[in-house]
């Protein structure tokens, strides 16, 4: 347990999740709507920040909101995924500052078509991810060093949209992968649980409410 770290959550994150993370010894920082993009993603941490790796020493890149546009794809310039050796995003829209940071860390850049890369990707460990995005899956499966579990799209709530994304409903904190809501209701729950636990990562979710996209759980 690495205590006294800051976890960034949407202001709409449920109290059950907030209280659990606080009990782990962390400080929860609520990300408030800044009117930069449309509701409800305007309070999503993964719109404004990018976790630059999976270890406890990996820092959180803080994006300049002036680089963001209101609508897709201009509102997801920071919505990238960093693994041990890879930086994954739609490189056509990545913030130049974020790309420089990835290059500084020596990460190999992988281009995918999906701008909401982090929203669509559950980071399990430094070389393992889960995604329902067929484009991300198709690209990453070409990299033998990355393990990818494909799951079905949907089954995640996002206010104002037909569905949300599993990556946006999740986040790893220390040695536990948290899901915001009832992961057991997902049709691929058994495969997800096995994939996560086989990598020595604990799984925690909240059966009392629906699995909901809150823009990721980001640990600084």
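-> sequence recovered:
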């Amino acid at each position: 347990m690495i205590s006294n770290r800051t976890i960034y959550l949407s202001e709409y994150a449920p109290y059950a999740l907030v209280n659990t993370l606080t009990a782990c010894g962390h400080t929860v920082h609520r990300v408030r709507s800044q009117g930069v993009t449309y509701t409800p993603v305007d309070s999503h941490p993964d719109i404004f920040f990018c976790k630059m790796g999976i270890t406890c020493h990996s820092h959180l890149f803080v994006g300049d909101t002036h680089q963001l546009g209101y609508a897709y794809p201009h509102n997801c310039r920071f919505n990238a995924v960093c693994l041990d050796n890879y930086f994954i995003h739609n490189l056509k829209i990545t913030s130049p500052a974020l790309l420089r940071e990835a290059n500084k860390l020596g990460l190999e850049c992988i281009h995918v078509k999906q701008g909401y890369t982090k929203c669509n990707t559950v980071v399990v460990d430094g070389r393992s991810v889960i995604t329902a995005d067929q484009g991300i899956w198709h690209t990453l499966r070409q990299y033998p060093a990355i393990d990818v579990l494909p799951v079905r799209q949907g089954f995640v709530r996002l206010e104002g949209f037909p569905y949300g994304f599993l990556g946006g409903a999740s986040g790893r904190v220390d040695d536990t992968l948290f899901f915001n809501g009832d992961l057991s209701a997902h049709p691929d729950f058994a495969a997800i649980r096995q994939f996560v636990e086989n990598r020595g990562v604990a799984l925690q979710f909240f059966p009392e409410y629906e699995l909901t996209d809150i823009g990721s759980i980001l640990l600084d």
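The chain has a mean pLDDT of 96.
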